[in-house]
Write a structure and sequence with these properties.
The protein is of the alpha/beta class and about 400 residues long. The protein folds into two domains: about 5-180 and about 300-394, Aminopeptidase; about 185-300, Alpha-Beta Plaits (2-Layer Sandwich), CATH 3.30.70.360. The protein has eleven helices and 16 strands. A hairpin with a 3-residue loop joins strand 1 and strand 2 (about 60-65). The longest helix is centred in the C-terminal third of the chain and has 21 residues, at about 265-285.
């Protein structure tokens, strides 16, 4: 059967739905995906893949050789769920209280397995090697780093890699593809403002870190508006502020945490020094001490021309031009970017939205759901991208 024919194959779609339902019912948190990875491994072994278990703890890597071992083309899917209590009434809703596939990683796993089945059924015509990577702990921004640390691409030399993420704002049956930046770099900031605490009724005897913190918060908002080129973009957001024990006591210190997002490498490289200058100098102006810990977590997802063109042409063949969307980049992060730093790769968004089926809720919502017709779309696009990459690089 030709790859495109799988898109409309009822039995194939039904099998993907069954696989998806099973994963959705039995979600597992980051680095705890033991049952998930074992189900993946057994399914792929039955298809004829050579499977390596326990990569970076719970990860799985599976390989399938065609005519040659080169070129080697990979598909990456993440597996972990979130600590969220599902509120849907789906017949296959999570059976684990407080754990849910609310970001759709079960979708990605299902699509990759579906692509594996398609490619295994076309093994005799494959010009290279298929590598399927099932990654743990994407939600912690750690899974890809651990796989790289274990030498995944030294053990499984790879020439190109493809990955996907479901997108509820894109209609089912469509795919969003973009060369260049698609998702943002993610950095974490941890700030402490230290003064001298004391009685709230005697502020003149103290050095108030709360007042200094208030000014730091306001001054940080000037970074994007007054330091970043209006034609570029960045985000500086604070998410927590902690300090104090009573309404009439000025505390000794305040701590804050936040996130910084950017797409441009030059913009990103300047964020730490700008934030540090504001934290330290503003705190000092109030007689306090400001300290910044700047943690670089993820680079941006940047799709280079070659794999993006291959994915575009594969999607064009499978879905037609009318179902290819030009996306607006997201300030969300993705650790697929870690793989892209090592080998050429393209990441795309799979449309899963459908208001008529209630598939409208955003990622990380307890009501999150998808239009399951998208599963065969994702699987066939991934499979054709792999074979087209083999043809291009051979």
């Amino acid at each position: 059967m030709r790859i495109k024919d799988f898109l409309s194959n009822i039995d194939f779609q039904k099998e993907l739905e069954e696989i998806y339902h099973e994963f959705h019912k039995t979600p597992e948190l980051s680095f705890k995906e033991k049952n998930t990875s074992e189900k993946i491994a057994k399914y792929l072994e039955e298809l004829g893949f050579s499977v390596t278990r326990r990569v970076a703890g719970t990860g799985v890597v599976a390989t399938l050789n065609g005519e040659n071992e080169k070129p080697a083309i990979a598909i990456r899917a993440d597996m972990d769920a979130l600590p969220i209590r599902e509120q849907t009434e789906l017949p296959f809703k999570s059976e684990k209280d407080g754990i849910m596939h609310a970001c759709g990683h079960d979708v990605h796993t299902t699509c990759a397995l579906g692509a594996g089945k398609i490619l295994a059924s076309n093994k005799d015509s494959l010009k290279g090697q298929v590598i399927l990577i099932f990654q743990p702990a994407e939600e912690l921004n750690l899974g890809a780093k651990e796989m790289i640390k274990e030498g995944i691409f030294e053990k499984f030399p790879t020439d190109m890699i493809f990955g996907l993420h479901n997108h509820p704002e894109i209609p089912c049956g469509s795919v969003a593809i973009k060369e260049g930046p698609l998702m943002a770099a993610v950095d974490r900031i941890e700030i402490s403002i230290t003064g001298k605490g004391g009685h709230g009724g005697l502020p003149h005897r103290n050095t108030d870190p709360l007042v200094a913190t208030a000014s730091v918060i306001l001054n940080l908002q000037s970074i994007v508006s007054r330091n970043v080129n209006p034609l570029d973009s960045a985000v500086v957001s604070l998410g927590t502020i902690q300090g104090g024990t009573a309404n009439n006591v000025i505390p000794d210190s305040i701590t804050l945490t936040g996130t910084v997002r950017s797409f441009n490498k030059k913009v990103r490289s300047g964020m730490e020094s700008r934030i540090r200058r504001i934290v330290e100098n503003t705190a000092n102006a109030f007689g306090c001490k400001g300290k910044l810990d700047y943690i670089y977590q993820l680079p941006p997802v940047l799709n280079p021309p070659s794999p993006t063109n291959i994915l575009y042409n594969a999607t064009l063949e499978i879905l037609g031009e009318e179902n290819i969307v030009q996306p607006i980049p997201s300030t969300g992060g993705e650790d697929f970017a870690i793989f892209q730093e090592k080998i050429p790769g393209c990441f795309f968004w799979l449309g899963t939205g459908n208001p008529s089926k209630g598939a409208v809720h955003p990622w990380h919502s307890p009501l999150f759901r998808i239009d399951e017709d998208s599963l065969s779309t994702g699987a066939t696009v991934l499979a054709r991208a792999v074979t087209m990459a083999m043809e291009t690089l051979s």
